[in-house]
Design a protein that fits this description.
Chain lengths: ~240, ~240
């Protein structure tokens, strides 16, 4: 196994960082690594906002599901889907792309581009000995956070990413077994037994590592139930996205 | 610069592969690398379909924007957003997650999870000397391709990924300059000049490398204009997704 695959397999989330800040050079290196990812039809339909203002970070940490560690150590990046620049360029080229960028597929393009870029940043950061944590909670507070970040039309924050020097790493968390995720030639809808077995593995994991009595599916389903984010459609429509 | 970052920065798409197939072991290693990525609230809301049947590959290559190389060398993976397994588990737990999984945010969760996993696979593959190409064209033919792959409700193909032994690599393509993608503390809407300058860079690039007269923005805007994928909303709704 090579070093890169080792880095990938050793990924864990980090939620406690030292006070050591990233240098400007590190930040640039991370963003450039992010930019090297593929993007859908080379649209580069994303932007990255680095939040360095301590007061702003505190506010975002609060609205992103009240996770104070976001504002503590580490550099806080917000990855955004972005076709605003395309809209600006289209105007200059006298071309009309409204039908596309108002469609739901463009929102997917932006979310995919932001995600591929972010995952590149994650691997680059971890290869440098840094720790990371994705902050999906940015979408819990997307309305307030968009105001704070001056998000214009045809941009939306997809998630945040904290990158910093780890004080403590989480343990490796077992994934759904390979056979549960991987299908051959056709989608196989009868994989519930694999997930059931995985629930036994995760039950042991949560008991031993976190002294909690729960399974993966209880956790995942519970989290889906409690976080419908039912404001998302109106929010996206308000920014021009996913209207049809 | 370490080896991993070097791999990340040297990423190019590969569209010509030798006939050498990946071994079962390589495929498993790639899927396991994909699974090591973070997933939103640890939902693991994705599945990967490996297409090995030559006839099926040919058909998909045709419907995915008529790209025959998909069916030639290399292993073809289809990355899907997937909350079907959550629906099955919720039923057993006697919990109702309809409000969440029918909402547009769940479609984003699935697309994000599939993307983070795929980008892990890309880096792992490239670190092993393999070449890759994302196939967003899978969404051009999503209706037909979903039939071919038996895609059930609450699953949708996000993109494909070909992984194989490269016969020929594309050249490194210049990205939007760092300052065009990266914002500090607030979204800066006045970055058009950077994109204009980048258009000059890409004009030279396309002239020199491909003997074509075009810029990045002409290419990107043209591709948005010609591919509105206006069937996407009905398709997604038909599979239960993004209804509200």
């Amino acid at each position: 196994m090579n070093k890169t695959i080792e880095t990938i397999l050793n990924h864990v989330s980090v939620r406690t960082f030292t006070d050591q800040a990233l240098t400007e050079n590190q930040v640039k290196q991370l963003v450039i690594a992010a930019q090297a990812a593929s993007t859908a039809s080379f649209q580069q339909a994303y932007s990255i906002i680095g939040v360095t203002d301590p007061e702003l970070k505190l506010k975002i940490a609060y609205f992103a599901g009240n996770q104070p560690f976001i504002a503590e150590g580490g550099h806080f990046f917000v990855f955004c889907a972005d076709v605003n620049r395309h809209k600006q360029m289209a105007k200059d080229l006298d071309m009309d792309i409204t039908e596309t960028i108002e469609g739901i597929d463009a929102a997917l393009v932006g979310a995919i581009d932001a995600s591929l870029a972010a995952q590149n940043m994650v691997i680059a950061a971890e290869s440098m000995g840094l720790g990371v944590c994705y902050i999906g909670g940015v979408r819990d507070g997307i309305i307030k956070i968009s105001e704070l970040l001056d998000i214009p039309e045809f941009v939306f924050p997809v998630f945040g990413l904290v990158v910093g020097y780890p004080k403590k790493r989480n343990e490796l968390k077992p994934r759904i077994p390979f056979e549960g995720i991987y299908h051959i030639n056709r989608y196989d809808i009868n994989k519930k037994d694999i997930v059931k077995k995985y629930d036994e593995t995760t039950k042991l994991y949560y008991e031993e590592i976190r002294s909690q009595s729960r399974t993966w599916s209880e956790t995942a389903i519970g989290s889906f139930k409690s976080l419908p984010r039912s404001f998302m459609k109106d929010y996206l429509n308000g920014k021009g996205w996913a209207k049809r």
